[in-house]
Design brief:
- There is one protein chain.
- With 140 residues, this protein is an alpha+beta fold.
- 17% of the residues lie in helices and 37% in strands.
- The protein has 2 helices and 10 strands.
- Strand 2 and strand 3 form a beta hairpin.
- The longest helix is centred in the first third of the chain and has 18 residues, at 3-20.
- Mean pLDDT is 71; it is low at 4-8 and 10-27.
């Protein structure tokens, strides 16, 4: 067999392998592999304003991947399931911070200030920093 035919066969084999493998979750997304809907909120440090902003809640159905992050060092994420905010067990050792959240859809600036949180009718909840790791939520 000629060297050119070998290269062509290898190229086709590589294409087959790439397109036949299931898609993996990226580090900037959360994939829900539970049987429940999971809700997600993001806290992001905003250098221009020197404050923390928090946005939420977004839902992820079972098997769905959602979310995008800007800077892993300054992004924290909270999850809730069945109305309670609970870090998934496999991530509970991650660095954490407390941020303000509200029940419905929200956007809060200065979200690390408990006094401001109380003033706007929010509550402080634990958010985790996932760094570069892929967030695959498989159990709570």
């Amino acid at each position: 067999m000629s060297p050119m035919k070998v290269k062509i066969r290898i190229a086709f084999l590589m294409l087959f392998l790439v397109f036949s493998c299931p898609a993996r979750a990226r580090a900037d997304r959360m994939c829900n592999y539970t049987n429940d809907i999971i809700w997600q909120a993001h806290a992001q440090f905003i250098p221009e304003a020197q404050t923390w902003g928090v946005w939420g809640w977004w839902s992820a159905k079972p098997g769905e991947c959602i979310g995008e992050r800007r800077d892993d060092r300054y992004t924290y994420v909270a999850y809730k399931r069945n109305r309670s905010v609970t870090p998934p067990r496999q991530y509970q050792s991650r660095p954490s911070k407390m941020f303000c959240v509200k029940t419905g859809s929200f956007e809060i600036y200065g979200a690390d200030n408990p006094n401001e949180c109380a003033r706007i009718g929010g509550r402080m909840e634990t958010f985790l920093n996932y760094g570069q790791d892929t967030e695959v939520i498989s159990r709570f």
